[in-house]
Every structure is written in C-alpha cells, then in structure tokens.
Amino acid sequence: MKTFKVIGLLLLVFVAGFSGGMVAARIMVHHMVADAAAHPEKTRKNVEQSVESNLYRRLRLDAGQREKVHQILKDSRDRTRAIREEFQPKFNAIVIETRTNIAAVLSPEQNARFEEFLADNRQFLPYRELPPLPKKAGNNSMGAMPRATHKQ
Questions:
Q1: At what angle do helices 2-38 and 40-59 cross, to 10 degrees?
Q2: How far apart are CA 124 and CA 139, in angstroms?
Q3: DSSP 21-38
Q4: The whole model's pTM is what?
Q5: CA-to-CA distance for 78 and 99, rounded, in angstroms?
Q6: How far is it, in rounded angstroms, from Cα 107 to Cα 152?
Q7: Backbone angles phi, psi at 56, to 5 degrees
Q8: Nearest CA to 111 among 147, 151, 69?
Q9: If we measure between CA atoms, which residue out of 65, 151, 143 comes closest to residue 101?
Q10: How do residues 93-150 score in pLDDT, each as one tens digit?
C-alpha cells in the first residue's frame, strides 16, 4: 500500500509539473505573439537580422559573401513587398466580407461575443495591415483598410 502512495504521489507531482509547464509555455507564447503584433516593424527587423546572422554563421560566409547575400535577401524582400502591396488589400476585403457575413447571421448578443472573439484573437486572425513603406520620393502608398463594423 505504501508503494502505491509513493507512485501516486510521484504521478501527481509529474502531472502538476507538466500542467504548470504547459500553462507557462502558453502564457509565454501569447505574450510573444502579442508583442510581435504590437511592434511589427521591430519584429520584422529582428527576424531579418536573425535569419541573416544564422545564415552567415552556418555557411561561414566571408565579408564579401555576406554583403552579396544581404543584398540578395534585401532585393527579395522588396519584391515580395510589392506582391503583398498588390494582393493584401484584396485579401483584407475577403476577410472583412467574411466577418460581415458572419455577423449578419448572429444575434446582437452573439455579435458582441464575436467582436470580443475577434479582439481576443486578432494576432491569429488573417486580417493584416500593410507595414509602412520605406520613405521614397513619389511614394504612393496604399492606406490601411478600416476594420469592418458589424450591424444587423
């Protein structure tokens, strides 16, 4: 009987530790995602620097190669930004239409909960505003789309 108590206690400690670790990891990830959503430009720069430094280190690039790889990555980012600028507004329009259509079938109470759901999960939902464009002469940037308002 004493052996079962020891095994039960060890199992309880293991389950408590596992559960606590899961909760702590979830909280940490939530804060990291919220920080990334709150500071997208800072996050973008950190990711770019991290990718480049890892690439330099793992490939053991010399200074000349680093400069060339940096320029290749920069050119790639510029080209993908152009594509994102073209398609992001269309994508956002679909997301807004979807949210509006969902809201149209909900009761006022459900709409309030839907708005809370959207607010609580905004970092995981696909609606994105375009990051600010670099300052250039004659830059014609597109403004961010407003958030849809849901009315019945």
A1: 110
A2: 30
A3: HHHHHHHHHHHHHHHHHH
A4: 0.49
A5: 31
A6: 8
A7: -60, -45
A8: 151
A9: 151
A10: 888 898 899 999 999 999 999 989 988 887 666 666 544 544 544 444 333 444 444 3
Q: Which of 2, 8, 37, 26 is nearest to 131 (CA)?
A: 37
Least confident of 14-23, 35-44, 66-75, 96-105: 35-44
Name the residue among 71, 150, 143, 89 with its Cα closest to residue 114.
Answer: 150
> What does the block give as tokens for 88?
């992001």
- At 93, list the tokens: 């329009």
User: CA 69, CA 57: separation in Å to the nearest integer?
Assistant: 12
Three-state SS at 146: coil
